[in-house]
């Protein structure tokens, strides 16, 4: 067969072979067969030596052209094959992405603690020091120092767990007021403190009563503290916790350790003040008690009530949580059903 | 105190809507817990006059009545009440009426007889059982006087009134009377209440001369008696009954009702005795004596206490002073002469007596919170007059004044500038004067600033300048105070160092995937002692509510087990719980509180999943959590774990945690609960730990000195050993550390095997040793040498073979 015929045939067969190579390996074999050192193109080039120079040149051109053509085709084919192969592999790796992921157990802060932390940060930002006190308290600090002498009728307001004649489980966080007042050195500046903690009362546990709950006490004492300052402070607390759009009101109340004494109500979040079962149709919900520190409390702590004065407040952390999150039963805080606890994870901040 | 709006009209000219008034009172003085309009929801209730009353032919208890209800023809009504009778004026619910509970009344047939309505008892139209007169408690209500048939019943029964529930704080007991409430409301709406004085014209003979009276001044600084003779006991007129029941008091008879009415009016509790009680004309107020007994009006027999205050007739006790009269001295159907008592008793003694005998009455509540010393005589005079008017009594001349100690008026001085300084206001002296005018408290201006307020005895709550400031603040109005923030020198807010550490512990525990719980500090005596290494004397409360809340816990784990039980009973079987809080004991006679942290695990370390990539909770997982916690708290050195025993913990799966030989807690498996009474816990495997933070917090040292990450590569070598089973990992580690030289950075166990492939009594352990020189690249020679030392030492000391 003459060389022209061989080139022509190779062009046809080569194209076919490249096209029909189904794998990268086959394609490589085709490349070797066509263009390798012992490949067909090489053979033709060797055979060219035998023919006349005029034709040799012509053939040479054809062979070069064919080599370029093969190279290009092999290249295209290879890319297509690789692409196909990758696609195949990815397809084999396909997952059912709708199967569930593996969640990790995250811990949750207790909802009462969430409120405690939030309020602590709020007050620390306003320059308050956080102070702790004992839960087993003496009658002296729980009552006497707070202007509640023995037989004071207001002791009836709190049924107290007594441990012995002089000791009890504190019925309020207020004794920390007395302890802090006694220790504070006013030469070093004003007293601004809060004190969160557990308190205990002899109540039967039911949906609205708990023999153990958490309170937070606040106290500011210096030379020029006014009731307006108390009102402003309480309003900012209430708005911080319950929302800026809440209205607040102060109304007279009674605590032996403050005079004047007030309670603060916020407009009912359930009905916006129109009246509903949550607010007992008053439109208002009581949130805390407060007042100007009673002169006897200051004097009991050795502070001259003619020079110093201030305000104090006490709020129930459980009550805040109940109101803020619509908790229907205070026992939910202490039975610790994980389904109850874990719903507050998103509230952490 | 239930305050009738209509009754208040006797003292004040009220035009305001009762609910709006209630809101004002709440904001200014006393919280109004509710405002009730008794006729709300009722419809078509009219007065009926029973013209005839026949027995129902087919019933032995029903009657057929013809009732005039002001229409052309009488209505036929079938009535089942036992007390129905001809001639009575009664409450009729017409066809279409609404009675209590929004129940609708319709015409119908009862046992074949047409009934065109219903004759009602008071409970059926919304009265509470405790105010309904006993006589009509089990039947229909019968008006004590004729009324216009067909007229509606609400006014006659006082149901068109508004009842304001004054939720009175202990300091404002001065409003526990209509007069006191009138002063308060008068101040709020700027009106002076019309308070009537009383003058008695006595019409009987002098009676006091022949009487002997003795009363300790401390027990009864005031003790007055009056005698009313020839009284005729009867029902009170309807106006008086309605005032009583609207105040929550059951009408009884005209004598008792008058004493209650006068108490409501003036705040002065009154008592009426049958005069035959004092046949020997002697009365005595004294302390009780041991062994004395008294049968009260309530028919309870009490043992009199030496701290009680009692009234006697010189022979025996006739009443528990200020709390309740005696049954035998009570006014009864045969009473003709009455002794009225009006007194002031020692508040603390009355309070204790009422508590002691579990008998807090309207009278004792008033005595213990204080009463107006200037109303004692006025009250007894009003009562005397009323008994003349309502019971045809004769007022015998004279008051037996056993004690009649006057109480001097207080004068309180303060200054306008002080008031403004405390309130943050700029009130003028005339504004302040006006406020005290409204309160009817006489004010004297001493100079431009100084004022003096004279406090009448009706306001015994006012003592000191701060009390006056409160009066100014509330009448001025808390709404009118400007909201400000304290203007103070800079203060540094923050947590104490101890709190910062507690917060850090809680934070890490939460990062470890644990849910925070809060459990009760009070628990049973058994649980309080569990999970402590050496239980101390317990702290117990004196009057526990029940046996499961007796003692303060000595561990947090006991509470966590309660929480686990609650959850497991509700099919929550994957639990990772912690608590950080206090435990308590009474060691060495002192009440002690300690901050602890504890955790409890049930189920799997991670949520179970379809790929089964999860582990059951086990000892080593929980121990790992302790290690992670301590490491995160900066405690890495000198921590050791030794097998040990703790009440409530598994005896061979519990480790005592020590730091530098000081016990700081324990970790392990809780004693299997299969014997437990608690069904929920029976099949649960629980692991946990408890740490004494009082020991750990001092080791937490805030502040890190930064170290660069190592620049030179480390070299790792694995070492497989075969040893006796009884050789512990802790021994091997310490031998390795002692012999490996200064470049040993870390040793970790990477494999443990004691199965069948190995000689009995032996085990195989594989360790990875990491060597690092922070200053240069380590050579193999150095590490090889170190490994040789280690191997030699393990062979010598622990008989280890290298595999
Ligand atoms: Zn509401």
Structure described in brief:
The complex is a heterodimer of chains A (349) and B (803). Chain A is of the alpha+beta class and 349 residues long.
Descriptive notes:
The complex is a heterodimer of chains A (349) and B (803). Chain A has 2 domains: 3-92; 111-348, Bira Bifunctional Protein, Domain 2 (BirA Bifunctional Protein, domain 2, 2-Layer Sandwich), CATH 3.30.930.10. Chain A has 12 helices and 9 strands. Chain A has helices at residues 3-20, 24-35, 40-48, 53-92, 111-125, 139-142, 175-183, 227-242, 295-300, 317-325, 332-335, 338-342, and strands spanning 129-130, 136-138, 167-169, 191-200, 212-222, 248-255, 258-267, 284-293, 309-316. A 7-stranded mixed sheet of chain A has the order 1-4-5-9-8-7-6, with helices on both faces. In chain A, strands 2-3 form a two-stranded antiparallel ribbon. In chain A, helix 1 (3-20) packs parallel to helix 4 (53-92), helix 3 (40-48) runs antiparallel to helix 4 and helix 5 packs across helix 10 (317-325). The radius of gyration of chain A is 44 Å and the shape is rod-shaped. Chain B is of the alpha+beta class. Chain B is 24% helix and 28% strand. Chain B contains 18 helices and 40 strands. In chain B, helix 4 (238-246) packs across helix 5 (254-266), helix 5 (254-266) packs antiparallel against helix 8 and helix 6 (347-356) runs antiparallel to helix 7 (362-369). Chain B starts with a strand and ends with a strand. The model of chain B has no long low-confidence stretch (mean pLDDT 94). The structure holds zinc ion (ZN). Zinc ion binds at residues 268, 270-271, 275-276, 278-279, 283 of chain A.
């Amino acid at each position: 067969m003459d060389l022209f015929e061989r080139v022509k045939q190779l062009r046809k067969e080569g194209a076919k072979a490249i096209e029909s190579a189904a794998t990268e390996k086959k394609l490589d074999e085709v490349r070797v067969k066509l263009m390798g050192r012992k490949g067909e193109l090489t053979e033709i080039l060797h055979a060219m030596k035998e023919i006349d120079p005029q034709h040799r040149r012509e053939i040479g051109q054809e062979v070069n052209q064919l080599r370029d053509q093969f190279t290009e085709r092999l290249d295209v084919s290879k890319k297509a094959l690789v692409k196909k192969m990758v696609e195949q592999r990815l397809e084999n790796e396909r997952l059912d992405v709708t199967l569930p992921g593996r969640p990790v157990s995250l811990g949750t802060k207790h909802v009462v603690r969430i409120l405690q932390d939030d309020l602590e940060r709020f007050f620390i930002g306003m320059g308050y020091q956080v102070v702790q006190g004992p839960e087993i308290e003496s009658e002296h600090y729980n009552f006497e120092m707070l202007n509640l002498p023995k037989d004071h009728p207001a002791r009836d307001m709190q049924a107290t767990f007594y441990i012995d004649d002089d000791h009890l489980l504190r019925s309020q966080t207020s004794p920390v007021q007395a302890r802090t007042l006694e220790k504070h050195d006013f030469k070093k500046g004003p007293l601004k403190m809060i004190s969160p903690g557990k308190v205990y009362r002899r109540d039967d546990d039911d949906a609205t009563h708990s023999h153990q709950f958490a309170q937070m006490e606040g106290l500011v004492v210096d030379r020029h503290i006014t009731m307006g300052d108390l009102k402003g402070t309480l309003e900012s607390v209430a708005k911080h916790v319950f929302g800026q759009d809440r209205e607040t009101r102060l109304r007279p109340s009674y605590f032996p350790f403050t005079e004047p004494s007030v309670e603060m109500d916020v407009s009912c979040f359930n009905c916006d003040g129109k009246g509903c079962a949550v607010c007992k149709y008053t439109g208002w919900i009581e949130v805390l008690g407060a007042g100007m520190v009673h002169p006897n409390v200051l004097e009991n702590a050795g502070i001259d009530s003619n020079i110093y004065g201030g305000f104090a407040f006490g709020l129930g952390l459980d009550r805040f949580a109940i109101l803020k999150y619509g908790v229907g039963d205070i026992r939910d805080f202490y039975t610790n059903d994980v389904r109850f606890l874990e719903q507050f994870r998103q509230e952490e901040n | 105190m239930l305050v009738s709006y209509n009754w208040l009209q006797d003292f004040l000219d009220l035009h305001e809507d009762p609910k709006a008034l209630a809101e004002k009172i709440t904001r200014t003085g006393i919280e109004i817990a509710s405002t009730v309009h008794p006729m709300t929801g009722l419809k078509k209730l009219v007065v009926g006059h029973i013209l005839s009353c026949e027995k129902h032919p087919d019933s032995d208890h029903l009657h057929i009545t013809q009732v005039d209800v002001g229409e052309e023809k009488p209505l036929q009504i079938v009535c089942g009440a036992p007390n129905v009778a001809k001639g009575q004026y009664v409450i009729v619910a017409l066809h279409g009426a609404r009675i209590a509970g929004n129940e609708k009344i319709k015409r119908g047939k009862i046992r074949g007889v047409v009934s065109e309505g219903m004759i009602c008892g008071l409970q059926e139209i919304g009265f509470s059982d405790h105010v309904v007169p006993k006589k009509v408690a089990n039947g229909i209500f019968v008006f004590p006087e004729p009324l216009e048939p067909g007229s509606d019943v609400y006014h006659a029964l006082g149901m068109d009134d508004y009842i304001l529930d004054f939720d009175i704080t202990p300091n404002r007991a001065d409003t526990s009377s209509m007069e006191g409430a009138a002063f308060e409301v008068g101040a709020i709406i700027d009106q002076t209440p019309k308070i009537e004085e009383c003058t008695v014209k006595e019409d009987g003979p002098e009676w006091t001369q022949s009487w002997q009276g003795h009363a300790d001044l401390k027990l009864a600084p005031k003790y007055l008696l009056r005698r009313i003779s020839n009284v005729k006991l009867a029902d009170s007129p309807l106006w008086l009954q309605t005032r009583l029941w609207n105040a929550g008091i059951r009408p009884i008879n005209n004598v008792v009702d008058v004493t209650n009415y006068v108490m409501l009016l003036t705040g002065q509790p009154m008592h009426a005795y049958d005069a035959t009680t004092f046949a020997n004309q002697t009365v005595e107020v004294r302390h009780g004596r041991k062994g004395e007994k008294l049968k009260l009006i309530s028919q309870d027999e009490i043992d009199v206490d030496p701290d009680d205050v009692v009234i006697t007739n010189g022979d025996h006790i006739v009443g528990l002073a200020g709390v309740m009269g005696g049954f035998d001295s009570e006014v009864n159907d045969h009473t003709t002469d009455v002794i009225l008592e009006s007194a002031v008793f020692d508040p603390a003694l009355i309070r204790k007596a009422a508590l002691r005998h579990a008998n807090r009455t309207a009278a004792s509540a008033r005595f213990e919170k204080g009463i107006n010393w200037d109303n004692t005589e006025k009250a007894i005079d009003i009562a005397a007059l009323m008994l003349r008017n309502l019971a045809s009594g004769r007022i015998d001349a004279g008051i037996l004044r056993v004690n009649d100690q006057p109480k001097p008026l207080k004068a309180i001085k303060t200054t306008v500038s002080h008031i403004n300084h405390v309130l943050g206001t700029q009130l003028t002296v005339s504004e302040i004067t006006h406020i005290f005018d409204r309160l009817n408290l006489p004010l004297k201006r001493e100079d431009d600033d100084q004022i003096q307020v004279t406090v009448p005895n009706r306001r015994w709550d006012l003592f000191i300048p701060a009390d006056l400031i409160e009066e100014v603040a509330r009448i001025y109005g808390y709404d009118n105070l400007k909201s400000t923030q304290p203007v103070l020198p800079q203060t540094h807010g923050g947590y104490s160092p101890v709190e910062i550490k507690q917060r850090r512990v809680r934070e890490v525990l939460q990062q470890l995937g644990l849910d925070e719980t809060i459990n009760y500090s009070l628990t049973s005596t058994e649980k309080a002692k569990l999970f402590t290494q050496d239980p101390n004397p317990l702290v117990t409360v004196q009057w526990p509510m029940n046996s499961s809340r007796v003692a303060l816990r000595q561990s947090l784990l006991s509470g966590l087990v309660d929480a686990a039980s609650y959850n497991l009973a509700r099919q929550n079987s994957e639990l990772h719980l912690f608590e950080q809080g206090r435990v308590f004991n009474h060691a060495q006679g002192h009440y002690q509180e300690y901050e602890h942290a504890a955790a409890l695990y049930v189920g799997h370390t991670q949520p179970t999943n379809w790929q089964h990539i999860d582990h059951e909770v086990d000892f080593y997982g929980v121990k790992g959590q302790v290690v992670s916690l301590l490491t995160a708290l900066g405690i890495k050195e000198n921590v050791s774990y030794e097998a040990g025993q703790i009440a409530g913990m598994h005896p061979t799966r519990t480790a005592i945690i020590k730091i530098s030989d000081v016990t700081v807690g324990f970790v392990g498996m809780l004693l299997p609960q299969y014997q437990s009474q608690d069904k929920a816990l029976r099949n649960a495997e629980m692991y946990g730990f408890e740490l004494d933070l009082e020991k750990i917090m001092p080791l937490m040292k805030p502040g890190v000195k930064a170290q660069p990450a190592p620049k030179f590569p480390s070299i790792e070598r694995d070492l497989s050993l075969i040893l006796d089973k009884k050789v512990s990992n802790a021994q091997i580690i310490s031998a390795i550390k002692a012999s490996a030289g200064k470049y040993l950075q870390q040793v970790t166990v990477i494999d443990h095997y004691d199965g069948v492939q190995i000689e009995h009594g032996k085990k195989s352990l594989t360790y990875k040793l990491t060597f690092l020189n922070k200053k240069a690249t380590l050579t193999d020679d150095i590490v090889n040498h170190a490994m040789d030392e280690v191997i030699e030492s393990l062979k010598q000391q622990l008989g280890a073979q290298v595999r």
